[in-house]
């Protein structure tokens, strides 16, 4: 029997997120600079005859039933596309908050596809992997190879891997789940409506200065509607922005997780400690991003 395989499913952070318009099918065209954190869930695949899933870890109780877990959805979509695919039991250690704007479920699904690809000797560029990722959810394709990139369309158009300077961040989730469709809906865009154009420079290698300028000139368009849906997000943003050395405080995805960026890991760790002391019930992590 082949050995179990494992991989990290890192948190996805939208450093920027611009909504460009609403399509006929209700999905929104986006432009987002995405990076990945050192912190995340862990996924192991034990090769076997049946496709199944176990979930444990601190946030497992919030992860929903097997039936709607994106790990199994992605795996099933791949088995439908690749005859004779070798499968097995997935063991997910869930640490990231759920429905939190940091792509926990999407990153888990992408990790499942990576493990199945390894087990079956499929190259990462295999079209069936891309197709299964796209059909699993809008954020899954960018998580397939978790490196910083520009993401466009509804998430399926990916730019080249970007070279970012190492970033030090604090992630803060006030432990309220946020329903992504509700946030997009409260943007109130009409079908077919387009918004003002993109504002991201086409840069592949960022210096600390050029990245800082690009981030400051950008925004997350979902922040105002998310703060309306869950006002505690505004409080989380304010607390992060108020920590020593915070260069930028912004929400990721459709929330509720917000991030702060810092110059080095010591300042980030001190900020995380301070917020965790003020708000012991919140989920707070200092981490690097790439
Ligand atoms: O694809 P996924 O199931 O992750 O998307 C969840 C919901 O978020 C969609 O049903 C849609 O309401 C909204 N969404 C959107 N535009 C995107 C991504 C998601 O409107 N680009």
UniProtKB/TrEMBL annotation:
It catalyses: 4-CDP-2-C-methyl-D-erythritol + ATP = 4-CDP-2-C-methyl-D-erythritol 2-phosphate + ADP + H(+). The keyword Kinase applies. GO terms for biological process: isopentenyl diphosphate biosynthetic process, methylerythritol 4-phosphate pathway; terpenoid biosynthetic process. It comes from the Bacteria. Signal peptide: none annotated. The keyword Calcium does not apply. Pfam families: GHMP_kinases_C (PF08544), GHMP_kinases_N (PF00288). Gene3D superfamilies: 3.30.230.10, GHMP kinase, C-terminal domain. ATP binds at residues 97-107. Its EC number is 2.7.1.148. Residues 210-277 form the GHMP kinase C-terminal domain. GO terms for molecular function: 4-(cytidine 5'-diphospho)-2-C-methyl-D-erythritol kinase activity; ATP binding. Keywords: ATP-binding, Isoprene biosynthesis, Kinase, Nucleotide-binding, Transferase. InterPro entries: GHMP_kinase_C_dom, GHMP_kinase_C_sf, GHMP_kinase_N_dom, IspE, Ribosomal_Su5_D2-typ_SF, Ribsml_uS5_D2-typ_fold_subgr. The active site is at 12, 139. Pathway: Isoprenoid biosynthesis; isopentenyl diphosphate biosynthesis via DXP pathway; isopentenyl diphosphate from 1-deoxy-D-xylulose 5-phosphate: step 3/6. Residues 69-144 form the GHMP kinase N-terminal domain. Belongs to the GHMP kinase family. IspE subfamily. Catalyzes the phosphorylation of the position 2 hydroxy group of 4-diphosphocytidyl-2C-methyl-D-erythritol. This is 4-diphosphocytidyl-2-C-methyl-D-erythritol kinase. It comes from Microvirga alba.
